[in-house]
């Protein structure tokens, strides 16, 4: 079920096992500005009225959450801000308008493509047997539904002094891992991560022998943190033999720092199945050669989670790559088409069956939300047109961000839900 609430909010309400989940994308209804002739700006220039924009979009979201019955059931909120300077302002206004809380909040310094102060994503889960509990420490929500405990956590950052991408990424992962442990989860139960790395493709470590970009150092930190963890072994189909890593997105941000959010699951029921998905047209990211990164990116192209007759697919950050090579350099239209072709192959019913999850009809019509990272703002009209054609009216958020390779112009991720 996909709906529009006013003109500035789109959302889907779809199953989450036997419960319901809402996936919502919102932006201010208007990019309010303070004009120089209203007597409030002594320097005589029009400036964005960030406070008014933030208040307006949060007010609209609250109205919708109340009307749909999800106000006290938010598990994750992502705020994409145009300027890192307004991070605390966004946090404070959110606390004021939503005293009930907005789940695990992550504030990401990625500018919305429409020039507004922020864009918002909300993920809420509600049902008569759903229970939510705030973590006693840290930024996490523990949700119980269908005999599964879910960990929703965000805004995991580094506490260390060095500014290098490896040190700060490893420390952010360590802080994330400590939150898992404190909430009685294990690293091996992680299903999905999002990693926002400032200045993603810029050099970070330069020696006489090698130049390593910040994304490569992030990959090295992730590899070291994961170590020899055997992810999801309890939930895999018996015949599954490939390498297993969480689904993930590693994407650029406007800050120099790194921030992580994640989802994990702990199930006691025997029919809870989790399967990493690989794309038949792509080399697995963890098998990339050293010419791309000294340590390959340790993530799956997607993650399918199935209970009984319900299946949800977490689609990792996906770009215009087949085999392991970038395609259509300099062409945002064809890169977007190829990216969506890759997602279509990944989430297809035949690919699910190939990975051991049978009987689900899945395709692009099962996508219920998407996030699109645009490298160059001037390419947005072209990318937007392709997305409208291929994705329809699902909630879709667009931000400006560097992608992991300099030649890549767009990256797309999302959720798909299918029911037998």
Helix count, per DSSP? 7
**Number of structural domains:** 1
Mean pLDDT: 92
User: Helix coverage percent of residues?
Assistant: 10-25%
Strand order of the largest sheet: 1-2-3-8-6-7
Low-confidence stretches: none
Strand content: 25-35%
Largest beta-sheet details: 6 strands, mixed
Count all strands and give the number. 24
Structural category: alpha+beta
Cα Rg = 21 Å
Query: What is the overall silhouette?
Result: globular
Distance between the termini: 16 Å
Short descriptors:
420 residues; alpha+beta; six-stranded mixed beta sheet; globular
Overview of the structural elements:
The protein has helices at 50-68, 87-97, 165-182, 214-226, 332-347, 349-354, 380-391, and strands at 2-5, 9-16, 19-26, 33-34, 47-48, 74-81, 104-108, 118-126, 131-134, 140-145, 148-156, 190-198, 203-206, 211-213, 247-253, 258-267, 272-277, 302-307, 310-318, 321-322, 325-326, 367-374, 396-400, 410-419. It has one domain (2-34, 44-419). It contains seven helices and 24 strands. The mean pLDDT is 92. The longest helix is centred in the first third of the chain and has 19 residues, at 50-68. The strands form six sheets. The protein has a six-stranded mixed beta sheet, covered by helices on one side. The protein has a six-stranded mixed beta sheet with strand order 9-10-11-16-12-15. It has a six-stranded mixed beta sheet with strand order 17-18-19-24-22-23, with helices on one face. By secondary structure, the chain is an alpha+beta fold.
């Amino acid at each position: 079920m996909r709906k529009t609430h006013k003109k500035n909010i789109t959302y889907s309400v779809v199953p989450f096992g036997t419960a319901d989940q809402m996936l919502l994308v919102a932006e201010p209804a208007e990019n309010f500005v303070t004009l120089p002739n209203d007597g409030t700006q002594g320097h005589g220039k029009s400036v964005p009225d960030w406070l008014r924009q933030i208040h307006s979009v949060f007010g609209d979201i609250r109205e919708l959450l109340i009307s749909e019955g999800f106000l006290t059931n938010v598990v994750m909120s992502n705020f994409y801000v145009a300027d890192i300077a307004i991070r605390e302002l966004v946090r404070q206004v959110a606390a004021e308008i939503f005293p009930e809380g907005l789940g695990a909040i992550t504030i990401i310094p990625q500018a919305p493509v429409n020039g507004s102060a922020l864009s918002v994503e909300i993920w809420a889960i509600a049902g008569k047997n759903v229970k939510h509990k705030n973590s006693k420490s840290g930024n996490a929500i523990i949700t119980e539904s269908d005999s599964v405990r879910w960990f929703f956590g965000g805004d995991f950052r580094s506490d260390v002094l060095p500014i290098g991408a490896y040190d700060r990424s490893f420390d952010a992962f360590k802080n994330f891992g400590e939150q898992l442990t404190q909430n009685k989860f294990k690293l091996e139960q992680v299903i999905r991560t999002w990693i926002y790395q400032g200045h993603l493709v810029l050099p970070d470590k330069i020696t006489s022998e090698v130049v390593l970009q910040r994304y490569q150092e992030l990959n090295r930190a992730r590899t070291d943190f994961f170590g020899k963890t055997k992810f999801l072994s309890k939930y895999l189909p018996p015949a599954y033999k490939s390498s297993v890593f969480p689904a993930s997105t590693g994407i650029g941000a406007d800050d120099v720092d790194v921030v992580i959010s994640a989802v994990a699951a702990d199930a006691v029921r025997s029919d809870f199945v989790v399967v990493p998905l690989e794309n038949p047209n792509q080399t697995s990211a963890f098998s990339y050669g050293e010419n791309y990164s000294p340590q390959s990116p340790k993530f799956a192209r997607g993650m399918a989670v199935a209970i009984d007759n319900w299946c949800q697919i977490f689609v990792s950050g996906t770009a215009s790559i087949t085999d392991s090579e970038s395609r259509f350099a300099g062409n945002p239209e064809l890169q977007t088409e190829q990216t969506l072709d890759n997602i279509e192959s990944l989430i297809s019913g035949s690919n699910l069956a190939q990975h051991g999850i049978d009987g689900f009809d899945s395709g692009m019509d099962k996508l219920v939300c998407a996030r699109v990272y645009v490298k160059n703002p001037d390419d947005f009209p072209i990318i937007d047109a392709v997305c409208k054609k291929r994705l329809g009216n699902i909630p879709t958020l667009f931000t400006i961000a560097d992608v992991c390779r300099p030649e890549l112009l767009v990256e797309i991720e999302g959720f798909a839900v299918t029911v037998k």
